[in-house]
Request: fold
Amino acid sequence: MKTPPFLLFAALLFWGWLSDFLIVGASLGALLEISRVVKLRWELDDTDFNRIWSFCVLLNIVLVGYVFTNNDEGGINAMLHGNTASAAAKSTVLTAIRFLRWLPLTTFAFLLAQAFNARPSVPLTAVSLVLRWRRRQGDRAFAGRYVDLSYPYFFVCVFAAGIHTNTGARIYFFGQCLLLGWALWVNRSRRFGIVSWLLALAVALPLGVAGMTGFNRMQGVIQNFNAQWISYFIRQRTDPLQSLTSMGRIGQLKLSAKIVIRLEPHQPGDAPTYLREASYRNYAAQKMTWYAGGGLKEFQPLAAETDETTWNLLAGKKVSSRVNIACYLNGWSRELEEPEGLLPLPGGCARLENVPPYMVLKVNPNGAVLAAGRGFLMFDALSGRGATLDAPPDERSTNRYDLAVPPNEIPALQQVIAEMQLPADAGDAEKRRRAEKFFSEKFSYSTWQGAEKRVTTNASPLTKFLLTSRSGHCEFFASATVLLLRQLDIPARYAVGYSVHETRGSGFVVRERDAHAWCLAWNRATKTWEDFDTTPASWVAIESQRTAGEEWLADVRSWLAFQFAKFRWRQAQFQQYIFWSLIPVMLVLLYFIIFRRRGKLWSRKNKTSSAAIIWPGLDSEFYALEKKLAARGLPRQTGEPLADWLERALAEPGLQDLRSPLRELLRLHYAYRFDPSGLNVEKRQQLKNEAAALLGKISAASAARNVTPSKNNSAASR
Amino acid sequence: MTLLYKFIYWNYRATSGLWHWARRRFTRAGLCVAVALMVTGAIGADIENTESYQSFVLLLALLLFAFACSFRFSGKFSATRILPRVGTAGQPLPYRVVVKNLTPKIQAGLTLLDNLADPRPSFADWFGFQRAEGRRSRPFRFSSTRSKNPFRLANLSEAEIPPLPAKSDGEVRLELFPLRRGVLNFSGVTIARPDPLGLFRAFIKIPAPQKVLILPKRYALPDLTLPGAVRFQQGGVALATNVGSSEEFVALRDYRHGDPLRHIHWRSWAKTGKPIVKEYEDEFFVRHALVLDTFDDEPNSDVLEEAVSVAASFACTILTQESLLDLLFVGNQSYCFTAGRGLAHADQMLEILASVKNCADKKFETLEQLVLKHSTDVSGCICVLQRWDEARKSLVEKLKMLGVPLLLLVIVPRGEKPADTLETLHVLEVGKIEEGLAKLK
Reply:
C-alpha cells in the first residue's frame, strides 16, 4: 500500500508543527514528495537496506542513551545511585517521550532510501534482526518478501505529533482526524459510495470525541485517587519544613549502607562531627513530627559572589576549617523545574566555595540551606566556631517556639527533672551537664521498636521512652533532650543531618544509616547555638554491626554512581564534550556501515587472487617465454589471447625459424592449462624441455640482433 | 508439568486462533489501525506528557464502528471449487472458485477467502513436537533454530470477486501454497465484505468440503549409477511385463517335476529315452528396494519430511528407467509397494509417500526384518535413514554380508553430523539436501 501524494508531507508537517520542528518536518516531507517527481533512483539491494536500518537503530540507541543519561531527572545517575523510584520512573518517561518524539527524524533515512529506491519497498528481513539472522541460518521463508513502510511511517509521524505535554487543546485530535480520514479515504471499499463513507465517519468521529472527554474525566478521578498511594513509593528525604519521626513505629528500623555524602577535609582536623541539613522548632506530639515553624516563604535567596562560585553565608565570620563535600540533591523544585535539596553543612559554616555556577541557594531562619539547580553537588564548606546561620531564639516573643513543650509531655519531663535532682540554682551549663549524664547513665541505644513504645491513649511514645523503656534511637534522644532542655528553660531545637565517623582514604564517607538527629541548645553566654547530642556514643557501633557482608558491592555501586554523577552534573570537566564526541563516533560508524561493502569486495578480490594460484597450468613454462618475448619488445596487451599475441609476435622476421615450434608449444600449453584431463607426464616434460630450448634460441636470436647494430655502428665510426 | 504444558497448549490454541481470526477479519488498513490502537494504548497511559490517548480513543471509535457494521451482511451465494487432484509441497497450486450471486441485486467489492480445516494439532501431537523441540534446541542459544511450525499445512491467498450481477456467477482465481505433503482438507469458502471505512469485514461462510493430495517435495537427482546390476536369478521376475522366460535358448536338461510340457524337447527324449526339456534364459529386470526409515517420535519432523522427499526423488527417477522399485517402510504395519514396468506408476508411489507417517510405537528391527526378507529379490538397495545409530549400522552390516549393493543416505538436522561415518555413507543436511544429492555419483 503506497500512500497518496502529499499524505506523508502533511503528516510530517503536522508532526513538525506540534513538536516545534516545523522547518525540519516540512523539509523531510518535501524530500519524500520530491521522489514522486524526480525519476532518479538508487539500486539498493537487501544488504544496503540492512545497513541503513542498522544505522537507524544505532542512531536510536545512541539517542536513547544520551537522553536517558542527560534528562532532568538524572537518568542512569538516579538508577545507579538508587534514587527514588519516582525519579527513575520520571526519567524513563522523559526518555521515552523524547525518543518517541524524535522517531520520525531518526527513522527518516530508511524511508528516504525506500522512496528513492528502484523498488519502492524494503526487504522484510531488513527490519527484523531475528529474520535477518534466520536468513543467514539458511531459512528462506522470508526471502524475497518486501514491505512498503509508507503507512507505518505515516502512523509514526501522526503519533509522534501527539507526544507533547497535554494542554487540553483539541488541535492534535482534529489534525489526526483529518490525516486519518485522508488515509482511510484512499483505502475505502469501492462497495460504498461517498455518502456512506462520510456518514460512517460522521458516526465514528463523535464517538471518538465522546470517548476523549470520558477518558479525561476518568483519568482525573484516578489521578486524584492515586496521589497518596503514589507518594508512598517516594523515598524519604529531608524536608526543610517538617521532620516526621519514626517514634511509635513498631519493628526494626532499617536504613541502608548506601553512601550518600563524601567528605574530603583539607586538613586532617577539619572534618566535622555532624553535617546538619535542617533544624526544627515546633513539636506536634500527636503526629510525632517536628515542624520548622514557617513555610517555604521563610527561605530567603542568597546572592553569590561575582565569581558565581562563592557564597557567603555569614559575612565577616572567621573560618578555621575547610572541607570538600559531595552530595546529592534528591528533591525536585516545582518552581524552578530543577533538582533541589538541603545542603549537609558543618556547624558554623560561614562560606561555600567552588559551588558550581547557576545554582540557586536559599536559607531559612533555622539555618537550613536549600540548593537547586543540579542533582549532584561538590563544594568546599568553610566553617569556624561561633555564630551559625540560625536565628536567635524567640525568648521574648509571645509564641516562644524555642521553649515550647507539648502539655501532654510535661508530666513525664517533670518526673525526669525530679529524678535528675537538679540544684535549685543550677545554671544552663550545669543543667546541660546533668541532662547529658542522666541520658548516658540511664538510657541505652536501640533500633528495636517494641510494642512498649507504641503510642496509646494514656502515654505518648516519648513519655514511655522517658519513663519506662529508656531505650530508643536517636530521634527519641533528640526529641526528649530538646523538650527536657526547654522544660529547663533553655531554648533548644531539633536538628537532623548526618554523623561523620567513617574514614575512607584521606576523607570520610557518610552512609544513609549515619542519618542522625540531635539537639541544638542555645548558649546564653556566647549567644550561639551549640550541638548537644545525648544519644549514647554506642549508636555508631550498633549501627555498624548491621553491616551486611555484601556492603563492599554496594560501595562499588555507590562509587560508580558517584563517578557518574560527577560526569553527569558537569563536575568532571569533560562532560560538556560528550555530545560532540558522539558525532565523530557516529560518523565513523556510518562510514563502516555504508562503505563496508567496499572492504568486503576488496578482501574477496584478494581471496580470489590467492585462490587463483592453485589453478592448474599457471606454472607453465610458456609464461617465461612470454616474458622473454615481451622483453624483446613484443608485449602482450591486456586481455589479448595468447594465440593472437603469438601470431603477432611471430610476424617478426627474427623469429621466422621458431614459428612452428612456438605454435606447437602453445598448443601444449593450452592443453596443460585448460584441458580437464591435463597433460601426461611425458607431454608435461616435453613442454618443459621445449620451452627451455626455445628460451635459449630466443636469447641467442636477441643477442645476435643486438650485436649486429653495434658492429654496424663501429664500422660507421671508422 | 503436564498441567503447565496444557496451559501453554490452550494459550497457543487461543493465540493462534485469535491471530487467524484477526488476519481474516481485518483488512490491511484495519490491521494497521489495530496495531496503532495497541501502541497508542500503551503510550497514551501517560496522559500528562502525551496526547496519544486522543489517538487511542479515535482509533477505538473507528474500530468499534467498523465492528458494529459487520453484523449485517445480507447476501446469498453459492460456490464451487475447481481443484486439481494433486499438488506438490513447495509448489504453488492455482485453482478456481466459481461464485454465484443468488440475490436479485449486484454484489460488488467482495473478497473471497478459502477455508482450510482447522490445522491446530491435538494436545498429544503438540506435546510430542514440543518435547522433540526441547531435545533439539538448547535454551538461551540462538544457534539452535526452532523448526518451522509443522502444523501449518498451506498458505492461502485471498482474491477479489469481480462484480456479480444479479443471479449470475463469476470466477475467481486463487492460489494455494502447500507447505507440507499430505491430504489438505477444505471446509468451505468465505465471502467477505468490508465496512464503509474499510477496516473490518463481515463474513458469509459457504460450506464446500473438498480434499487435495499434496505430494512430497522432490529434488533433482544427478545421473546415478544405482547399486547392483542385471543378473541372473533363479525364479525370474514374476511381476515383469513379460512374465516368464525369454525366447533365448540356453541348454537342454533333464525334466523336472513341474516343467511345462511345451518345453519338452521331443527329439532328445526320443534319442535318450528320458524326458529332456529346453532351458531358456530367464528374463530379469533391475529391481531396487527403496528403504524409508520412518522411525521418529516427532510427527512431521524436518528430518522425516526430507527423508520422504529424498525417497520421492528416487522413486521418480528410478521409475523412469526400466526397473522395478520396492518401497519398504513401516507405518501402522510393514509395507512393501512395488512399482515400475507396468505395475504401478511413479504417481501412485508419490501418493503413498504423501501419506507416510512417522512410526513411534515400533522398533527399527521391524524394518530390518522387512528389508532382509526382501533382500534376496532385489539387485540393490537404497536406504534413506533418519539417523546413523547402532540399529541402522546393524542393518547395513547384514545387507553387506548378504552381498546386497547399497546406496546409503542419512538425513541429519541442520548443522549436525554423525559421529562416525562410512565411506559409502552420504550425509544430507536439512536445508542443504539438494547440494548433497548433487554430489551423488
Observations:
- Confidence is low (pLDDT under 50) at residues 229-245 of chain B.
- Chain B touches chain A at residues 27-29, 32, 36, 39-40, 43, 46-62, 64-65, 69, 108-110, 142, 145, 148, 193-199, 414, 431-432 (CB under 8 Å).
- Chain B has three domains: 2-215, 245-282, 286-438.
